[in-house]
């Protein structure tokens, strides 16, 4: 019910399905939740595998339906097993019956290793207490450790030009200066990776990799968004990572951007400023679409009244806070008096707040799509949302992997981690992990000590 094709993910190992597992699938197949859909898909997969008559103890090859990566067989519990459980574990509970099957199977086949695979932590604890081997299901994890997530930038060593400058070419383009470099560090680079070299007394180098050819890479210098003359709707980058993020957000050739970082690192403010600048000033996009995963931090407050937009408004407090800041922080320019009520109404007319529940089948054309709190999405939900993009649309996913509120999701299996890992190196996508908080000294200290 967590991953409907999990039975095909065990390589050369055989899979044994207790009868009570099929009962659990049958009990959970009704409904429109992801778990119910997955239960129905598993049932269809099992039906295709078990299309022939099953005989006692005989396995069916998992590759039978065309999944060649599965080299083992699947065994169904076709007969009764002698289950002996300790007195403290009543056999009326399904979890305990599964433990009994594992115990009986191990006694029946002492020459083979029997391992219980479950996403249920308590079942794994009980299994180990009974002396049985138990493991989590690892195939859903993009990363085993969230700390090794791709950051999107690379610090160059002080001797970079000495080791990589031999035969270097440089030329000017409209976007900036480009350098073609060769050397040992090139193998660690990928397209749209940001690189920087900061040395005392010398002008720093901030660039991104625009081409990568195995033994050589082309670096292009960046626009400095920490300079007030390059401010975006009054927002100036306060650190190196924010400047990297601004370069991606303002780049029309970058269709997909992911921003990760702790609370107060400026993800929402920068994204909203870049969106409004490109909708109103550059006329690059027709409007801004905002959505987010509606997962509560605490107890749910119940149903919300009103239309789709009104139901979503309590979830969009972060957007409202940042809109107020952008309006108050920006002085009048030309015909724009952004602090006026009329101007605020015009801005809000270009902001559409949508619920994720109604995204299936939609196509966004020429839109700037902001997906907030993306760490609470599953990989499947993330795929559903990203594939809504039509011609001329840019999607920005933001999230903090330290604040996952969705049950059963971890830093390694979050949809945000999945998207960052899969889009790494794509020439029209980029990622930056924002490291430094800029909200307030109180928020920064709280992030560290609480």
Automatic annotation (TrEMBL):
UniProt similarity note: Belongs to the PhoH family.
GO MF terms held by the record: ATP binding
Domain (PhoH-like protein): residue spans on this chain: 235-436
Annotated protein name in UniProt: Putative phosphorous metabolism-related protein
PANTHER family membership: PIN DOMAIN-CONTAINING PROTEIN, PROTEIN PHOH
Stored Pfam families: PhoH, PIN_4
Domain PIN residue range list: 1-137
UniProt keyword list: ATP-binding, Nucleotide-binding, Plasmid
Domain of life per record: Bacteria
A GO term from the CC aspect: cytosol
